[in-house]
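Q&A log
Question type: sequence-to-structure
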Amino acid sequence: MCRVALLEDDADLRGHMARYLTLHGGHDVVQAGTLAAFMPLINQLQIAVLDLHLPDGDGMEALLRVRREAPRAGVIVLTARGALDDRLTGLAKGADQYFVKPLRLPELHAHLAALARRLGFGGWAVDALRRELVSPGEQLLALNETEVGFLVTLAKAPGQIIPRKEVVAALGHNWRDYDMRRLDQLVSRLRRRWRVTHGQHLPLRTEHGKGYWFAEGLGLV
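Response status: OK
Response body:
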């Protein structure tokens, strides 16, 4: 779950979107129909969904403000303005994704969820700069360089089983010369340290003969 701010001047559409994202994603959704109503929401949001055609201005102003005041936030532009210049401008000004209406709500939800995972909002995340694994409850585990590399490799393909050879290559080794038992030991240590530190099981899974995956999704900070 993450905090989503919807900027959309069509009240019916806005309400429908908010209900869908709350029901299907469990997100905390706030709504605005004008730029003036949206601006005070910026310091609360984690992801903004922005229309560009508004009664009191251009939604690009909202995009620029979000990027300036909430640089870690995600931004999805959802608008009727589909010209190439508009798309390029939106992305250049900091939109993570730019979609042209109409967009089916299940697709919007899927893109929003993927963006939230990538940004580390509302789920597990690995912070490569700080070398930390972060849980949805903001619990932390310090990581060494190899553990960071391992988890970043899993985070780049959420929900997928990453073959052992691919993990070894991502860690900078030749799998032909690599003792695969080292990977199993790395995974065992991570699970044990998380259990000892926080008293919970780490959703890091081993698929024997195949590879590894993070069962609850893992994003990158």
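Response note: The first helix runs from residue 11 to 25.
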